[in-house]
Specification:
The chain has helices at about 20-25, 45-50, 65-75, 85-95, 95-100, 110-120, 120-130, 170-175, 230-245, 280-285, 290-295, and strands at about 10, 35-40, 55, 80-85, 105, 140, 155, 165-170, 185-190, 195-200, 205-220, 220-230, 250-260, 265-270, 310-315. It is α/β, with parallel strands linked by helices and about 325 residues long. A six-stranded antiparallel beta sheet has the order 14-13-10-11-12-15. Strands 3-2-1-4-5 form a five-stranded parallel beta sheet, sandwiched between helices. A four-stranded antiparallel beta sheet has the order 6-9-7-8. Helix 4 (about 85-95) packs antiparallel against helix 6 and helix 6 (about 110-120) packs across helix 7.
Amino acid sequence: MAGETARTSWLLSSAGRRGSLVNLLKQQPMHADRSRVIATDRSELSAAGRLADVFEQVPSVRDEAFIPRTLEIARLHDVGVIIPTIDPEIEVYANHRDEFAEQGVDVWVSSPEVSRLGWDKWALYQWLREQGLPTVETFEVSDLPTGALAGAVVAKPRSGSSGIGVVLADSVEALNVANLDESYIIQSRAPGFEVTVDFAVGRDGRVLGIVPRRRIEVRGGEVSKGVTVDYPAVIEVARQVATRLPGAYGALNVQVFYEPSTRELNIIEINPRFGGGYPLAHLAGANFFDALLRDGRGEDIPELEWNPGTLLLRYDTEVIVSGFDIRSLDA
């Protein structure tokens, strides 16, 4: 949105347990001291919601009332930017972005086409092939030719997330394909280790920042230990993805497998949203919040710099709420 909006607050959608994002946003005022962080979630048991300045419950993203309710909250709390965080809501926001813009609210979400590539792994595979970008051989489970894949394989739902339903096997034969749902795809297992690359894209498609982070340990589909890494080949392939995606906007990430000994790269997934590990990129020096705000105001800013070797080690903590009405759990 060119020109500075009068709206001053952030809205973190489907906040869940993303307390780190809430705390980082609290350090990012839009306009002096008037900025607040609003969190929404379908559950009143959202830890991040309780850390925010204001917490509002919303219907499920699949409910027709989700968008009207979120618009109501945005108007009520003077929201200037909405940050979606979970895969199911990305396409919903993408399809309604203009409605929010009419109210002076900038939703940091890409085009519906990009949201589909993030949600549908088979469509992503076809797009990567069309673009000549590196990825592993992939087949739909219902159309897997005999002998098409040799060696270790991965089976996953074409529209899954957080690693749910993923099956690893040493061969197709060991996979027991007959037991897989028709929604599955089967891929060759990529060599090397996983690197997730966070990147931010401005309104005109310009890349504002790229930060690769090696995933050391994952828990529940989200990085629990990671470190920023300066791998030029990985950065370059992420830049190609960022510039070729049709309508990329906001914060996204691409998951890449990298084998340093051969320099082989394979793109596995694209997530058109702030990733769970974004705080590592931010704390390494790449402030996507500030860059996207300044880009929205029409400022010409240099690509963000960041510090390689920044290590993330997550640990459990808690949020305590006093006076909670236990009767709400039985409603």
